[in-house]
């Protein structure tokens, strides 16, 4: 294959992925006004349901426009030799391959962030604001962006520098060392994310003594779940949407409740949600997901090692000097169809795990309390009750509300 044909193969992959995603969005939008399943008739009052449809339509139109603009910008970058231009700038600053790679991705990431900021701003301060979800201030919005950028530079830059260093030292065998590094990092993030990362953006406080904590601890004792830490996070600082999650394992495991969840649900419903999260732990879903993630990372890095040294990748993007960073860009696009397939498989596994966690909550606590909590959360988040089956199959990591309720009541 010549660089010319590889270039247009990359373009074709980008466009095809865009068209498939857009087709799914269009199919999904056509289901917005479908008849509500009978088990969900009590989720929305009529006025609220109309509001949920309006919210879905607003997000659909926004995504269609923003993704089209992103595609146009990306294609222009390709056809105007943008990668070669950034590579030239990076090489004019340093001769060190690691620094060149860091500068290259730094320029692209910063440029991408600047270009995407207006769309993100509109999503939060226009759409989310209009439908009553947004609690983020403009100050918080920009502080979050600065913090995220610093983390990307420190953490992402550090990992990338080490991976390029491994490549310079070991050649195609670099993937083994990179896989080890990323696996250790992934394990550390699973263990300490709530302690190290969350506090940068949110305040976490231990759940105060009282009826809710007593009920949670009584349930944990009943099912043999050793729970040391129950935290409340100030999710209302940014949104009215509610959530709860389980993080860590071993001595570092903890349950975190959004303050909005405590506000929206009664104690029995909150414990039912936590019973679902405990189910994930008891069924070892956390460990399985971690191992699957590490395995997929290894597979991706191995594939990368087969192609990264090929100068054709750099030539296809108009760059005369082959390099790890240019090869990584081209490979990322070539690998995207495989990534879509592995993502689909992970979603199938995730949906199966959600059913198992629901079953655990049903068998150890109260299925109707979990159903009630799911309905309330769907209503408060203006969730889509009638998604297209293709959208569910390809992109949903959770079963639909209707599917979960049918499973919980069978």
TrEMBL record:
Keywords: Endoplasmic reticulum, Hydrolase, Membrane, Metal-binding, Metalloprotease, Protease, Transmembrane, Transmembrane helix, Zinc
Membrane topology: Multi-pass membrane protein
Ligand binding (Zn(2+)): 276, 280, 354
Active-site positions on this chain: 277, 358
Domain Peptidase M48, first and last residues per copy: 207-410
Compartments in which it is found: Endoplasmic reticulum membrane
Cofactor binding notes: Binds 1 zinc ion per subunit.
CAAX prenyl protease 1 N-terminal domain boundaries: 30-203
Residue spans crossing the bilayer: 6-24, 64-86, 98-125, 146-167, 173-193, 286-310, 316-336
Cofactor: Zn(2+)
GO molecular function, one term: metalloendopeptidase activity
Primary residence: endoplasmic reticulum
One GO biological process term: CAAX-box protein processing
InterPro entries: CAXX_Prtase_1, Peptidase_M48, Peptidase_M48_N
Family: Belongs to the peptidase M48 family.
Name of the protein in its database record: M48 family metallopeptidase
């Amino acid at each position: 294959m010549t660089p010319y044909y590889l270039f247009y193969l990359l373009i074709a992959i980008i466009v095809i992925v865009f068209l498939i995603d857009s087709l799914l969005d269009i199919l999904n939008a056509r289901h917005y006004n479908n008849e509500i399943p009978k088990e969900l008739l009590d989720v929305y009052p009529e006025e609220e349901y109309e509001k949920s449809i309006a919210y879905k339509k607003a997000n659909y139109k926004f995504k269609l426009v923003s993704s089209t603009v992103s595609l146009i910008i990306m294609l222009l970058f390709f056809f105007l030799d943008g990668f070669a231009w950034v590579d030239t700038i990076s090489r004019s600053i340093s001769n060190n391959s690691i620094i060149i790679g860091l500068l290259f991705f730094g320029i692209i990431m910063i440029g991408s962030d600047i270009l995407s900021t207006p769309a993100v701003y509109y999503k939060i301060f226009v759409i989310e604001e209009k439908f009553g979800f947004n609690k983020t201030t403009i100050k918080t919005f920009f502080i979050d962006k600065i913090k995220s950028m610093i983390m990307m530079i420190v953490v992402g830059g550090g990992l990338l520098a080490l991976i390029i260093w491994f490549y310079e030292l070991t050649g195609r065998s670099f993937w083994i060392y990179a896989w080890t590094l990323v696996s250790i990092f992934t394990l550390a993030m699973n263990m300490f994310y709530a302690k190290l990362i969350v506090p940068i953006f949110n305040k976490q406080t231990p759940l105060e003594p009282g009826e809710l904590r007593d009920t949670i601890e009584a349930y944990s004792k009943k099912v043999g779940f050793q729970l040391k830490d129950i935290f409340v996070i100030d999710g209302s600082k940014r949104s009215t949407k509610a959530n709860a999650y389980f993080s860590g394992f071993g001595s570092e495991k903890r349950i975190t409740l959004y303050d909005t969840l405590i506000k929206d649900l009664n104690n029995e419903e909150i414990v039912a949600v936590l019973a679902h999260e405990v189910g994930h732990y008891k069924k070892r879903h956390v460990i399985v997901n971690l191992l699957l993630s590490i395995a997929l990372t290894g597979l991706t890095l191995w594939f990368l090692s087969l192609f990264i040294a090929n100068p054709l990748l750099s030539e296809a993007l108009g760059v005369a000097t082959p390099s790890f960073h240019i090869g990584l860009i081209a490979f990322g696009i070539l690998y995207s169809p495989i990534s879509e397939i592995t993502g689909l498989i992970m979603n199938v596994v995730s949906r199966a795990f959600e059913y198992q966690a629901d079953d655990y909550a049903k068998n150890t606590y109260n299925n109707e309390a979990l159903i009630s909590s799911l309905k309330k959360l769907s209503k408060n988040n203006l969730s889509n009750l009638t998604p297209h089956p293709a959208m569910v199959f390809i992109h949903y990591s959770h079963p639909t509300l209707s599917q979960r309720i049918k499973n919980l009541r069978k």
